[in-house]
């Protein structure tokens, strides 16, 4: 399966996508470029699928990608993924996030988008 390199080497790309996935889990939605949002969608959907599984092995696999950060209430991103986000999608088979294009960024005219979890 082809993916976008995002003009970064593999370590930088992995770090960027880890940060974006963690921020999406903690905040529910984020604004980024369309290309980054489309790459993030793939990873976020995989994390929700792991969250729906709920096993220890799934938690460890998710912990490889999601950073060890807390939200405003003091919950870690992994806890929020497994306890709040995944149960919301218990009856849904895929398509947990949506990408909504918002316009262009003023500085460099890059197409921007909001990626959010589906309600």
Plain-language structure description:
The protein has 119 residues and is of the alpha+beta class. It has a single domain (10-117), classed as Ribosomal protein L17 (50s Ribosomal Protein L17, Chain: A, Alpha-Beta Complex), CATH 3.90.1030.10. Helices cover 50% and strands 17% of the residues. Strands 1-3-2 form a 3-stranded antiparallel sheet. A hairpin with a 6-residue loop joins strand 2 (97-104) and strand 3 (111-117). Helix 2 crosses helix 4 (77-88). The radius of gyration is 14 Å and the shape is globular. It starts with 9 loop residues before the first helix and ends with a strand.
The largest sheet is: 3 strands, antiparallel
CATH top level assignment: Alpha Beta
Helix percent reads 40-55%
Helix-and-strand structural type:
alpha+beta
Q: Assign the CATH architecture.
A: Alpha-Beta Complex
Q: CATH topology, what is it called?
A: 50s Ribosomal Protein L17, Chain: A
Range of strand content: 15-25%
What overall geometry do the principal axes of the alpha carbons give? globular
Mean pLDDT comes to: 96
Provide the succession of SSEs. HEHHHEE
Unreliable segments of 5+ consecutive residues = none
How many separate domains make up the residues? Answer: 1
Strands in their spatial order, largest beta sheet: 1-3-2
Q: How far is the first residue's CA from the last residue's CA?
A: 28 Å
